[in-house]
């Protein structure tokens, strides 16, 4: 498991493009027949992926966790962005179609990832935070996610937010997770942006053409920078940073948050005059 320590906002202002990419961008996700994991010091989040092809993949506890099994002290959200598959948690199988989400509760001992077809393997995106109590492992099919419609064609930001793991739906300790789908011809998300000092967030961009990119905006509102992001890559967004983006084409992204509270509307809103 990789370990990442994120710079503070003072150092961030003086970093080069490559230094920013090395600190905040995760480029190693979705390797076939592997489980990839990255541990970050910000709210002790773990970001990862599992792409089973010929054989199932079993999640184990990395040495850095000092745990008997991965979810001994953690909860996890999993979003499938690939072909059909299933996740087996302590002997119980959960079928996972594209854009289905699974909440895995603390105390789950054995977690196995399986693809239905090697020709079209599942691509499981993993997001995990420490947990203080147990909640039941629960499947959230896309049809059962809570849709929130925002934006307009005129502003090039018409989109639907699908809330999967959240206080009014599937409960958790820290984790709030879902995904946002932009309409064709729309390229902006979350502009004007916001911060939420009580939570950090991870964005993972997907369903993008191979030659498409998203310019992910981050930093203090008065000192913004950007990271150019490709399909299947993720960006760590500390609580002090804005998190917005514009693409060369429409895209989808998975958002996940953890921290002091789970209130989706707890945002420190900004205006365009605040952005530099």
Q: Counting H and I runs of at least 4 residues, what is the number of helices?
A: 2
Mean pLDDT: 94
Largest sheet: 7 strands, mixed
Instruction: Briefly note the structural class of the backbone.
Output: mainly beta
Stated plainly, the CATH topology is called Jelly Rolls
User: What order do the strands of the largest sheet run in, or round the barrel if closed?
Assistant: 1-3-4-11-6-9-12
Question: Which strand-content bin applies to the residues?
Answer: 35-45%
The arrangement of helices and strands along the chain is EHHEEEEEEEEEEEEEEEEEEEEEEE
The end-to-end span amounts to 36 Å
So what's the oligomer here?
single chain
Q: How many structural domains in the coordinates?
A: 1
Any idea of the CATH class?
Mainly Beta
Low-pLDDT residue intervals, each spanning 5 or more residues: none
Report the C-alpha radius of gyration, rounded. 18 Å
Can you give the helix content as a percent range?
under 10%
Apparent shape: globular
CATH superfamily: Jelly Rolls
- Total strands: the figure is 24
**CATH architecture label name:** Sandwich
Please describe the structure with a list of short key phrases separated by commas or semicolons.
mainly beta, Jelly Rolls, 7-stranded mixed beta sheet, 2 helices, 4% helix, 44% strand, globular
Please specify the SSE layout and strand pairing.
Blueprint: E1 2-4, H1 9-12, H2 17-24, E2 25-26, E3 35-40, E4 46-50, E5 57-59, E6 74-80, E7 85-89, E8 92-96, E9 101-104, E10 111-115, E11 124-130, E12 138-140, E13 146-150, E14 159-165, E15 176-182, E16 188-189, E17 194-195, E18 199-206, E19 214-220, E20 223-229, E21 233-237, E22 242-247, E23 252-259, E24 268-269
Parallel strand pairs: 1-3
Antiparallel strand pairs: 2-21, 3-4, 4-11, 5-10, 6-9, 6-11, 7-8, 7-10, 9-12, 13-14, 14-15, 15-23, 16-22, 17-24, 18-21, 18-23, 19-20, 19-22
